[in-house]
Amino acid sequence: MDAIISSYITAFLLGLFSTVHCIAMCGSVIGALTLSLPAEVRESQRRMLPFVFNYNIGRILSYGLAGVLVGLLSSPLTQINAHWFLRILSVVVMVSMGLYLAGWFPKFARAEKLGAPVCRLLQPIGKKLLPVRSC
């Protein structure tokens, strides 16, 4: 029974602390996209509704899709008990990124170069979508 209660407390705290992420990241992205709209759209709640609705649907669908992908990819890993390796790897990457952002681990920029091909593929798509002009 104590394990169930501690699981609920942990889930509650994770949800509470993830709110900061949502406000800071998702809120600022939606705010920036909204501010890029023409003034006549921003001043009308009726005209803003489709934009805000689509922003939030996109956010929910992308997080849902990411969860499905992680679940599907991690399922086979549970069969071979690889979660401990993934946990250690994620801790090393997160700490390295933090040190890099603080300026204490400049060599982490090499890892950033690994994602450059993906960025080159996605950049043209992103340019077509910004600034937002229609729903």
Shape: extended
Question: Main beta sheet, described?
Answer: none
Q: Identify low-pLDDT runs.
A: none
| Mean pLDDT, all residues | 83
Rg (C-alpha, Å): 20 Å
Order of helices and strands: HHHHHH
Helix content: over 70%
Strand content: under 5%
Q: Distance between termini?
A: 49 Å
Task: Tell me the structural class.
Answer: mainly alpha
Q: Count the helices. How many?
A: 6
How many strands in all?
0
Describe the model.
This protein is mostly helical. Helix content is 83%, strand content 0%. The chain has a domain at 81-135. The protein has six helices and no strands. The mean pLDDT is 83.
Please render the helix and strand layout as text:
Layout: H1 2-35, H2 39-42, H3 45-79, H4 83-101, H5 109-114, H6 116-129
Report a brief summary of the structure.
The chain has 135 residues and is an all-alpha fold.
Identify the notable features of this structure and list them briefly.
135 residues; mainly alpha; 6 helices; 83% helix; 0% strand; extended
